[in-house]
Amino acid sequence: MIELKALNENHVSPFYKWLNDVDSIRYSLSAFQKINHSGEVDVWFRSVLEDKKNLNLGIFLKSSKQLIGFTGICKISSLNRSGEYFIFIGDKSMWGKGIGSEVTKQILKIAFLEKGLNRLMLTVSKPNIGGVKAYQKAGFIAEGKCRQACFRDGKFHDKLIMSILKDEYLKAIKA
């Protein structure tokens, strides 16, 4: 259904639309809330392409090679063997089709089997019920919450902290 691949400078175009769509960025990175015009998108995208510390990948449909989003692992600590998972499906026509779950499976495999991480964590906005359920289904466990850590749509809401450990992942894929 999808494949994760490195992004290049030719992949910036869809981000112009996605990062200016209120629905697409509602529960996404805070940085996306401040990007308002193409020049800012260009600066952000260039920083993603130049970033060698984090894993940044495009989400592409296998059938058409169309870019539909962005995912990866940031805040990678080789000492602690941990990182933070992120996903952004900008193409709203792809929402609700299981793509997020497939991306998450592929990222977990990369994190634990290729990168040798022991822990992968994420934060998710509490009102993002679909996201919370998808992460739970993938094996992420809620660890706590950051109270009123996010301001969207004129009000504050909590962010949940979730994680999965390598042992939990390995147990799940063997089951």
In terms of topology, how is this protein built?
Elements: E1 2-5, H1 13-18, H2 22-25, H3 30-34, H4 38-50, E2 55-61, E3 67-77, E4 82-89, H5 99-114, E5 119-125, H6 129-137, E6 141-152, E7 155-165, H7 166-174
Parallel strand pairs: 4-5
Antiparallel strand pairs: 1-2, 2-3, 3-4, 5-7, 6-7
Description of the structure:
The structure is a single chain. With 175 residues, this protein is of the alpha+beta class. It has a single domain (2-174), classed as Aminopeptidase (3-Layer(aba) Sandwich), CATH 3.40.630.30. It is 35% helix and 34% strand. The protein contains seven helices and seven strands; from the N terminus they run βααααβββαβαββα. Strands 1-2-3-4-5-7-6 form a seven-stranded mixed β-sheet. The radius of gyration is 16 Å and the shape is globular. The mean pLDDT is 93.
- The proportion of residues forming helix, as a percent range, comes to 25-40%
N-to-C series of helices and strands: EHHHHEEEHEHEEH
Distance between the termini: 23 Å
Strand order of the largest sheet: 1-2-3-4-5-7-6
- Second CATH tier, the architecture: 3-Layer(aba) Sandwich
Mean pLDDT: 93
What name does the CATH topology carry? Aminopeptidase
CATH superfamily membership: Gcn5-related N-acetyltransferase (GNAT)
Count of all domains: 1
Using only CA atoms, what is the Rg? Answer: 16 Å
Strand composition percent = 25-35%
- Say how many strands there are: 7
CATH class: Alpha Beta
The profile of the biggest β sheet is:
7 strands, mixed
- Which shape, going by the Cα principal axes? globular
Structural class: alpha+beta
Uncertain runs are: none
Number of helices: 7
